[in-house]
Amino acid sequence: MPKLTFTDEPEKSPAKKRLTHLDEGEYQVRIKDWEFKTSAKGNEMINLQLEEVDSKNFIWDYLVFTPTAQWKLKQFLPAIGKEVGESVDMDESFMNAIVGEHLWVDLGIDTYQEKTKNTVSSYLAGKERLPRRVIEDEDVPSWDKE
Length: 146
Prior knowledge:
By secondary structure, this protein is mainly β. The chain has helices spanning about 70-80, 90-100; strands at about 25-40, 45-50, 60-65, 100-110, 115-125.
């Protein structure tokens, strides 16, 4: 373990305080992570973790596989560059392949039990996106010194 000595000197670079939520509007986000889940009603869904490009804030959204929620899937796929009529099997392989993709969303704000968070109001297609960016394990510096 490294040895540290704490002093009363001011921080050299104060840490930026992350915003609790972003204002409503259009933002470019990156797909950071995902997981398959089952809703309380027993519906299959994908829990998406999105990261806003500039603020690095996280936004979570659910893609639920029900007829009433199909509108969101029909927005999501074109927003990541899939063409209308293109067949997509949203399995583990597909989801892993889109981690790092950038897309545009229209964010809203929701307050529940005195906690405010961003929600994805809609996914936006046809906007210029940054190229896919994934941080691979081998790109992360090791803690071990060789």
